[in-house]
Design brief:
- By secondary structure, the protein is of the alpha/beta class.
- It is built from 9 helices and 12 strands.
- An 8-stranded mixed beta sheet has the order 4-1-7-8-9-10-11-12, sandwiched between helices. It has a 4-stranded mixed beta sheet with strand order 3-2-5-6.
- Strand 10 and strand 11 form a beta hairpin.
- The longest helix has 15 residues.
- The chain is globular, with a radius of gyration of 18 Å.
- It starts with a strand and ends with a helix.
- The model has no long low-confidence stretch (mean pLDDT 91).
């Protein structure tokens, strides 16, 4: 079983010639709405790669929330573990013509108790994988002896201690170099040491510059990505996470899973919206052409 525990969003995407500064007024090239959310996007990416994931997030009981969940089910994602007694969050995504973006997001109602209940529902006699987005690590609680391999996306963390707690609990950490270095103050050398100390594989993504895989007991591996014309990089990291997890669950090594995930994330940038993850067949065709 693969469970994605985290954000569900309705994204309002606005493209402009360039991102506005303080006090500026600009006309939009377009304003569109898409379903989004880190965990929900990652679940869709995993489903398109052949997994049968479950989304365990929090939405409301209103029509917009029902429509959001229906969209996940159409993609092959189970929503049976989603709580529907709160609200669906929204995010505003500003894009310039090069695909660069700025995001304004709303916090959701998912709690540490929700994550605890997800872990408690898992059958300990079977192998499971659970994805958790990084915003959940504000609490001092760290799951121990979890009946699943935890994959934590630390994007959204703002303190080094959050990353350390996540590494203590998880088998895999995923995050952008901006979050690891700028927000939380980690060098690659410090992350490599953290991976060795906690026995956790850490994947550092760098967008068009590729990514680094840090595995305990192994040399750091640099994985390049192909160059494509970027339409919208919203959700590329979520696409990577979903495909990475789907490949790990299939038995791939971390390096192989990261290589496939990076290629899928790159391909997703050629299309608008946060759920532009390709299918396995689409990725194979892309790699054969390029």
């Amino acid at each position: 079983m693969i469970v994605f525990c985290g954000y569900a969003n309705r994204d309002i995407v606005i493209q402009l010639d360039e991102l506005p500064g303080v006090g500026e007024r600009r006309h939009a090239r377009f304003i569109r709405q898409h379903d989004g959310g880190m965990a929900a996007n990652a679940a869709v990416a995993a489903a398109r790669f052949g997994a049968t994931p479950t989304f365990a997030g929090v939405v409301g009981s209103d029509a917009e929330s029902s429509d959001f969940l229906a969209g996940l089910r159409r993609e092959g994602v189970s929503t049976d573990w989603t709580r529907t007694d709160a609200y669906l969050t929204h995010a505003v995504i500003l894009l310039d013509v090069s695909g660069e973006r700025a995001v304004i997001s709303q916090d959701d109602a998912l709690t540490v108790e929700d994550l605890r209940q997800v872990l408690n529902r898992l059958d300990r006699t079977q192998q499971h994988w659970v994805y958790v987005d990084g915003y959940r690590w504000d609490s001092l609680w760290v799951p121990t002896n979890a009946p699943a391999a935890l994959v934590v996306d630390v994007d959204g963390c703002t303190e080094a201690d959050q990353v350390i707690r996540a590494a203590r609990a998880a088998q895999h950490l995923i995050g952008s170099s901006r979050i690891f270095s700028e927000a939380c103050g980690f060098t690659i050398e410090a992350l490599d040491q953290l991976a060795a100390t906690e026995g956790t594989t850490i994947v550092v993504t760098r967008g068009a510059q590729g990514l680094t895989v840090l595995e305990p007991g192994h040399q750091a591996r640099q994985i390049p990505v192909r160059s494509v014309s970027v339409t919208d990089d919203t959700g590329a990291g979520d696409c990577f996470a979903g495909v990475y997890l789907a490949e790990l669950a299939r038995g791939a090594t971390a390096v192989d899973a990261a290589t496939t995930g990076a290629a899928a994330a790159t391909l997703s940038c050629r299309h608008p919206g946060a759920r532009a993850a390709p299918t396995r067949r689409e990725l194979t065709d892309f790699l054969e052409l390029y």
